[in-house]
Amino acid sequence: MTARSGRPRRPLAAALVALVVAAGCAVGGVSPDEPPQPAPQQPRGSASPGAPETRADGSTSVAEFQEDLEVAVDKAELYWGAQFRASGERFQPIRRVVPYQRDGEVSCGGQGLPRNNAVYCSAGDFIAYDVRWSVAAFRQIGDAFLYYLLGHEYAHGIQLRLGIRSEFTIQHELQADCMAGAYLGDSVRGRQLGLADGDLDEFRDGLLAVGDDPDQPWFAEGSHGTAEQRTDSFFRGYEKGLPACGLG
């Protein structure tokens, strides 16, 4: 994606994250120690003609990763700050974004966070991510999906600020997907962010990769939704904005 300054921003595509609520935290990740793999090639829609067949874009350095991470956080803060001000409410940004490298190095509500993970911790009001896993994924997959990752995690913080509670995890997670889509779609329409070739396909491929196993019951603790449900929720928010996300 591209920031409003016009400087190209490389995608932090990878965080193929599944979030579950436990011990006051939204915790998620994948179990293997290897970075997530790109989803198999899917039929391309007309929204992004000419998208390259691979999601990798040559981004390799930790400095590029950190720069994109900072931009993603900054744009999320700008977006949600504007939404709160428009409603006459005071906005408090999420306190911090914390990298970690080892199991248990960072705790949420007394529970150590595992590797290969990215989370929003409601107990401490922070986002944490396994930096080695995330950088490896950044190098392998590309960039735009990072903005979804940060958007999804930030949405959990907004849900907390709005007092939103859900009976089932899947409801909370699909709403966060929708909110992430609204943040990104509205930011593109408002020229805070610009789409590069293939960005929409990166969102789509990433969402296909993070869907629940087809055999997982929708009501099970930790359910996030099938790939189809997550994709539908994200793009509903992307195309229609926050009114589509059921915040009222």
Describe this protein with a few key phrases:
single chain, 248 residues, alpha+beta, five-stranded mixed sheet, globular
Explain what you see.
The structure is a single chain. By secondary structure, the protein is α+β, with helices and mostly antiparallel strands. It has one domain (9-32, 58-245). Helices cover 41% and strands 12% of the residues. Strands 2-3-7-8-4 form a five-stranded mixed beta sheet. Strands 1-9 form a two-stranded antiparallel ribbon. Strands 5-6 form a two-stranded antiparallel sheet. α1 (62-86) packs parallel to α3, α3 (144-162) crosses α4 and α5 (199-209) runs antiparallel to α6 (227-240). It starts with a strand and ends in an 8-residue tail after the last helix.
